[in-house]
């Protein structure tokens, strides 16, 4: 067993077989362009949240093949020595662009673009998809849950239900970017600075001879962070009375008036209403009520509509696994190559499934905002080098139903893709995770509420420039004739 894993090797085996073939036939250094994009929003939502960029940058900064890696590939007895020598002296030289973390993103638009030698660009495929797909999936789910909580804090509690330890750590990171206040995952705090939160489990209560004793000892040890889990035996007959007794005997004499209870089972609406009523009657109006137990955006929304008295939520398995739709579905497709003269040749994937037809060429994405309220109006995918003038009216049209047109006026334009690597050199400036979280909140505020509906959201416009549409249409006609 090797002492450590090299993420450069985390690639589908066919990427090695293809790149070995490309090198053999003189195409390994051919400059190519790949786009990552996704086709549909999870949970039939109106938007997704971009996440995972900084982890992707870290991966690309450490690309190399060890002697063990080369020995493994040689043992397969299908790779040329020239190819193994190329990998032994691997030097990353690609240009990479990506949409910043925390940005709302939409189907069809490039969210990562890679330009570089065919061997290198192809070998990146799995990790680009793995990193962005997973974290964007969890960030999107977390943001839906945070919005359902309507301003109440949401804590990520899902480590023990995550699909592996890496998913627990990176998932908690993504959830924080999307709006969660903190995580139960200590490693995510250590690595990324996401506040680790947590109190006790039922086993703490069960370890003591009485529930009261377990509460009292905990309150004495952590008086300024005292949230008691009151559903081990009976919420209203045992848990809450014992918690109130401890608050009165331990915390009030210290002058502490901020405390909390957590309920992890039962009828949330009924129990929280009764607990709030009793706490207020007993003189503890500042006592916070935290709820956990297989929550998601729909349960949270329903309980609040029913008048549940909840101050915060701990959300676990349905967040960290995006249980309702656990696949983001991003893809990585070739969109252009350069010939020996350096001329760009656009490429297109044609399919009888219309949604699988790709947009050809080297592209840029712009977001148009209203000057009146700073709300996002539409995204426009253009060919690289195209610009959109803010001083002139701009016509957008539906790429599938071109007769649907809208003239945009009084708007500002923002390019979405920012450069991460220039000829293999990292030009990305690392951002504080708290700043990324703030940025995400600001960008979410630019979306119309209709786009953010849980059910039947308004479809956000993602349109093609006229030049890109003409290029795509001409290529489709050409392949239809062939």
Describe the fold and architecture.
The chain has helices spanning 13-24, 53-60, 67-75, 81-88, 118-123, 125-148, 165-177, 186-192, 202-206, 211-221, 235-251, 268-281, 297-305, 317-320, 433-444, 466-481; strands at residues 31-38, 48-49, 95-98, 104-105, 112-117, 154-156, 182-183, 227-229, 260-263, 288-291, 312-315, 330-338, 344-346, 363-370, 376-383, 394-397, 405-408, 411-415, 418-422, 425-426, 461-464. By secondary structure, it is of the alpha/beta class. It folds into two domains: 7-138 and 326-481, nicotinate phosphoribosyltransferase (Alpha-Beta Barrel), CATH 3.20.140; 150-320, Aldolase class I (TIM Barrel), CATH 3.20.20. The strands form five sheets. The protein has a seven-stranded antiparallel β-sheet with strand order 13-12-1-5-3-19-20. A six-stranded parallel β-sheet has the order 7-6-11-10-9-8. A hairpin with a 5-residue loop joins strand 12 (330-338) and strand 13. Helix 2 (53-60) packs antiparallel against helix 6 and helix 10 runs parallel beside helix 11 (235-251). The longest helix is centred in the first third of the chain and has 24 residues, at 125-148. The chain is globular, with a radius of gyration of 26 Å.
């Amino acid at each position: 067993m090797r002492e450590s894993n090299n993420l450069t090797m985390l690639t589908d085996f066919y990427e090695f077989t293809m790149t070995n073939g490309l090198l053999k036939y003189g195409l390994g250094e051919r400059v190519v362009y790949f786009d990552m994009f996704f086709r549909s929003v999870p949970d039939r939502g109106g938007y997704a949240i971009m996440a995972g960029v900084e982890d992707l940058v870290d991966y690309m900064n450490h690309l190399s093949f060890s002697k063990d890696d080369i020995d493994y590939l040689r043992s397969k007895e299908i790779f040329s020595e020239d190819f193994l020598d190329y990998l032994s002296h691997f030097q990353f030289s690609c240009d990479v662009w990506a949409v910043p973390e925390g940005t709302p993103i939409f189907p069809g638009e490039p969210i990562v673009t890679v330009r570089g030698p065919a061997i290198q660009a192809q070998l990146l495929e799995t990790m680009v998809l793995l990193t962005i797909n997973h974290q964007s999936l969890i960030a999107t789910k977390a943001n839906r849950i945070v919005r359902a909580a309507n301003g109440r804090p949401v804590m990520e509690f899902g480590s023990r239900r995550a699909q592996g330890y890496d998913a627990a750590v990176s998932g908690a990171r993504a959830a924080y970017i999307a709006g969660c206040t903190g995580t139960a995952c200590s490693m995510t705090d250590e690595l990324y600075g996401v506040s680790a939160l947590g109190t006790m489990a039922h086993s703490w209560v069960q370890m003591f001879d009485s529930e009261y004793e377990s509460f009292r000892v905990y309150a004495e040890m952590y008086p300024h962070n005292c949230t008691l889990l009151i559903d081990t035996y009976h919420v209203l007959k045992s848990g809450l009375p014992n918690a109130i007794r401890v608050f009165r005997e331990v915390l009030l004499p210290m002058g502490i008036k901020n405390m909390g209870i957590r309920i992890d089972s039962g009828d949330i609406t009924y129990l929280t209403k009764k607990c709030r009523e009793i706490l207020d009657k007993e003189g503890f109006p500042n006592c916070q009520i935290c709820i956990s137990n297989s929550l998601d955006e729909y349960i949270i929304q329903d309980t609040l509509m029913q008048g549940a008295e909840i101050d915060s939520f701990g959300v676990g398995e349905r967040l960290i696994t995006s249980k309702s739709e656990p696949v983001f579905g991003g893809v990585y497709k070739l969109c252009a190559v350069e010939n020996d003269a350096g001329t760009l040749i656009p490429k297109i994937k044609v399919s009888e499934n219309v949604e699988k037809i790709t947009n050809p060429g080297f592209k840029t994405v712009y977001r148009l905002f209203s000057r009146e309220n700073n709300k996002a109006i539409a995204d426009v995918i253009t060919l690289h080098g195209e610009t959109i003038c803010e001083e002139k009216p701009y016509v957008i049209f539906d790429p599938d139903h071109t007769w649907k047109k809208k003239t945009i006026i009084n708007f500002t334009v923002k390019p979405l893709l920012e450069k991460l690597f220039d000829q293999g050199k990292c030009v990305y400036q690392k951002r504080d995770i708290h700043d990324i979280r703030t940025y995400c909140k600001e960008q979410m505020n630019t979306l119309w509420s209709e786009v953010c509906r849980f059910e039947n959201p308004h479809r956000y416009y993602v349109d093609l420039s006229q030049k890109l549409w003409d290029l795509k249409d001409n290529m489709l006609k050409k392949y239809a004739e062939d």
